[in-house]
From TrEMBL:
The keyword Oxidoreductase applies. SUPFAM superfamilies: GroES-like, NAD(P)-binding Rossmann-fold domains. This is alcohol dehydrogenase. It comes from Leifsonia tongyongensis. GO terms for molecular function: alcohol dehydrogenase (NAD+) activity; metal ion binding. Belongs to the zinc-containing alcohol dehydrogenase family. Residues 51-172 form the Alcohol dehydrogenase-like N-terminal domain.
Amino acid sequence: MTSRAVTPRVLEAPARAGKGVGVFPSATAMVWTGEGHAHEAVAVPGVRLSPGDVLVEIELATVCGSDVHTVLGHRSAPTPLILGHEQVGRVIALGQGGAKTTDGHRVSLGERIVWSVSVPCGRCVRCRRGLGQKCVNLQRYGHERMRRGWELSGGFATHAHVLAGTPMVAVPDDVPATVLAPASCATATVAAAIEAAAEITVLDGAVVVVTGAGMLGLTATAMATEAGAHVVVTDPVDERRETAFEFGAEAVADPRVAPDAPGGLATAITRAGGRGVACTVGLDMSGSPAAVRTLLSTVDVGGVIVLVRSLTSGADVPLDPDVLVRRLLTVRGVHDYAPRHLEQAARFLVEARSRYPFAEQVTRILPLADVDEALALAASGVGPRVAVSPRM
């Protein structure tokens, strides 16, 4: 494969504030200017680090489904924009006073870290309620318009400017980047979903149905299995269902066939030890309205349904209050996560990497300059994750 040469155009120097840090050769960001346009390489020769900021050299960034949705025009985004919010890298510069990880560890130069997709202010009413991921003044990596003073705001770049207040977690040097990069989105989000379910019912011994076997679904399968659950995975793609077994699924189902037929959901639940055709927990990782309707009709009395992927706008998913009341059902929504979930995600990946094939789920790694090709491959469904590397 031949890489497209990177020919950056240079931005003006940052405003005179904070600690100036030059990068040589210049940091390069792949900038998206709107639907139908190819990414442009932009050189950022220096940044200004405010107190508590961190400059990170990115090792690897994976393509998330939301990146694909953005470039396809399925979700609005301000431009110009540096996409990417799943990455791992090493600290190469610190703002005045340095920075700390979520557990209070002082970050050092050369340390390998992952960081949250969100930057909460820590002061607003939502932050004070413990909902920093929904901060009134929230900033999000890979989602904000490229601007003066925060040019390196996304993962599809050689470097990232990590702002003060961003939850960060140190990670070991011996864990592959392909394992760690998804921690800041897919893995941490699943950690939040597992916690949301566990707050309602005990997972140990429970039958859990996971709808969708992409990166989120496979991660949820492994995490629920580690919690002692009997996991059933449903997905219309044969290959994905087979992969689910490698992540701990006890049974799989094809949503295209009748529930009580061979390969159907009811049959799979029975195989996993469910009571009749019911499960205790439903985790939707697909975003499919049909999957949510299935969970609403499948989860047993006193059970919980956790919705992680947002539904298609305008999707018709009837929610009968009588069913919720009589069956004592709980329906919870999870979007992003708290700092503790990033800690849990990193710890889980480090400890479980030998038990589950997370590294193999990054099926292609392309040079950073070929980010458009990486996005196209991700959109085509080539594996749970495609990645870009500044080092290629």
